[in-house]
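Take a look at the protein record below and flag anything odd:
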Amino acid sequence: MSADGRDARGEASREAVLVDTFAALADSLVAGFDVIELLQTLVETCSRVLDVDEAGILLADEDGDLEVVASTSESSTLVETMQLDARSGPCWTSFTTAAPVSLPDVDVDRERWPEFVEVAREQGFRSAHAVPLRLRGTVIGTLNLLRSTVGELNDRDVRVAQALADVATIGILQERTLRESAVVQQQLQGALDTRVVIEQAKGVVAHVRGVSTDEAFVLIRRHAREKRLKLADVAAQLVERRLTL
C-alpha cells in the first residue's frame, strides 16, 4: 500500500469519526441525552482526529467558576484543575474573553502563567489551545486541547475544534432550556391542580354554609390568613372533610 493510500484511508477514517460525532451532537438537539457522556465523546473524538494528545472540557457552574466535566486522561485533568485553582492559563483566559487562546510553546508564557506552565511541563505538555464553548453572547465553558510538542494547531483542526465546541454548546443549552421548561411546566401543572382543589373547597363551603361560591371563597381565604396557612392546604382539608368552616 502506498503512503498516499495509507493517508487516504486515514483521512477517510477521520472523516467517519467526525460524521459520527456530529451526528451524536445533533441528536442531542432533538432527544434526551446524557450531557456528561456527550462531552466525554467529544473530548475523545478530539484526541483521535485532531493533532492533539489530550483534551478536556470545563463548564461554568452557577457561580461562574469552571469545573472539569470531561477529560481524556488524568494528566490533562491535573492541568485543567490547576488552572481552576489559579484562575489562570489559556482555558481560563479563553472563558473570560470568549475567544480562542493559542499557546504554541508553554515556555514562552512562563511569566504570564507560571503555575500552568510548571504543571503542564511536569505532565509532558509543551503547547495548548483553548476554545470557548459559546453561543452568541453566552459562554458556558471551554474546550482545552493539549499537545506534547511545540507548535500551533493547523487551521483545519482549529476549525473542527471550534465547530465541535459550537455544536456541543447548542446541545448543552438546549438541554438546560428543556430542563427549565420542565420545571416551569411542573409549576404550572401544580398551580392548575391546586385551583381544582380550591374550586371543590368552595363548593363544599357553599353547600354547608348555604352561601354563594364567591362568599365561600372569602371565608376560605379569611381562614387561611387568620391561621397563616396556605390557601391550597386549607382547601385540601375542606375537601377531605378534615376542616369545617
In short: Residues 1-6 have pLDDT under 50 and may be disordered.
